[in-house]
Design brief:
13 helices; about 50% helix; six-stranded antiparallel sheet; about 15% strand; alpha+beta; about 375 residues
Length: about 375
């Protein structure tokens, strides 16, 4: 068991969606021997083949559980496992409790990765895909952020913090805009290259303006408060990872948690929701921010940073960066031109909304 190293695997037309290599299935069986559980059935429910991760649902003598193979470095995984334990044991948050091994550990190390077992929360259901559901998600997110404050990682864990990385991440977006332009010029015969070249300058200017604003904002004062003060962001929060249970909203899949300003999660949720609507809606944005604020109050200076982060062209960047990996394929894809057009149209509806809500937090302490 010690000599095996888990590697990403290829899923192709010969393998089914939830394919996991045999050697990993065998490792899973070995890992489960470390638990005082009688396992009646084991079923793969999610895989990350490109990263080497998977989740199984277990039916056991003490109810349903999940077995997770964490794809990150073990020291990074220790950070998220420590966070999950802190949220459950200290803060009584609605996140799945970790099941201890026979020797009292939170995890088993096998194949160069960490594995752990947690409670499988049932029943869970996604909230409705309307404004009411969005508000429930935002309130639960604020609650999660508030409860995560004060987390001190285990000594042997690496510190996962994005708190000081905002200007660098903005600079990365600007750099990639230049890459997009160069690639579109290099593949000018492709169907979507002219469409990309028509709009990349606009989004590059937006990103430059956002960087100027973050550098002149309260951001640098806010981050001086430090990691434990701000607590954790989920980094992958949405309709699938915030779900309604019998006693309220549960937040699941905490593998990627990191220290950061909490409104980064809120920004992602707002911009992703507006992208799903294909337009920015001032009522939705206002109500989502208010719902979050009820659970985890937003100061005027933090609101300023949220407004700046919403101004960054994240949807354009997120959707177009695929061009870097397979330029010819991406730029000849029939849907790419439509994708660019949709992003541009949605973006045009963003600016009047941001202008309208810009001063909503004036006078808030």
């Amino acid at each position: 068991m010690e000599k095996i190293v888990i590697e990403p695997w290829i899923v192709d037309e010969l393998t089914h969606e939830f394919f996991v290599p045999d050697y990993i299935e065998q490792l899973a069986e070995e890992v489960l021997k470390s638990y005082d559980l009688s396992v009646r059935s084991i079923q793969v429910v999610t895989t990350k083949p490109d990263k080497g991760g998977a989740i199984w649902k277990l039916e056991t003598n003490s109810g349903p559980k999940s077995l997770k193979l964490l794809h990150r470095r073990p020291t990074r995984s220790l950070f998220s496992l420590g966070a999950q334990e802190y949220l459950v044991d200290v803060q009584k948050a609605r996140v799945p409790p970790i099941i201890k091994t026979k020797d009292g550990s939170n995890y088993v190390e096998a194949g160069g990765k960490l594995w752990f077992v947690a409670e499988w929360i049932e029943p869970l259901a996604p909230v409705t895909k309307d404004l009411e559901g969005a508000k429930q998600l935002c309130y639960a997110l604020g609650e999660f952020h508030r409860l995560s404050k004060g987390y001190i990682p285990p000594e042997q864990a690496e510190i996962a913090s994005r708190l000081r990385k905002w200007p660098k991440s903005y600079e990365k977006v600007i750099t990639k805009m230049d890459w997009f332009r160069s690639i579109a010029k290099a593949y000018e015969e492709t169907a979507a290259s002219s469409h990309l070249l028509n709009v990349v300058d606009i989004f590059e200017e937006q990103a430059k303006r956002s960087l100027e604003r973050i550098n002149q904002s309260s951001y640098f004062e806010l981050i001086k408060q430090g990691n434990a003060y701000w607590g954790l962001v989920h980094q992958d929060y949405g309709w699938s990872n915030g779900q309604m249970g019998e006693n309220g909203m549960w937040i699941i899949d905490l593998d990627g948690v990191a220290f950061d300003l909490p409104i980064r999660d809120l920004r992602k949720l707002i911009s992703g929701t507006m992208a799903d609507l294909y337009r920015w809606d001032v009522e939705w944005v206002r109500e989502m921010i208010k719902a979050y604020h009820e659970a985890n109050p937003i100061s005027a200076s933090l609101y300023e940073v949220l407004m700046i982060d919403l101004s960054l062209p994240t949807e354009f960047y997120k959707n177009i960066k695929e061009v870097v990996y397979e330029p010819e394929l991406f730029l000849n894809e029939p849907t790419t031109t439509q994708l660019i057009q949709t992003i541009v149209e949605t973006d045009q509806s963003k600016w009047p909304v941001l202008e309208e809500i810009e001063n909503d937090w004036e006078g808030v302490e």
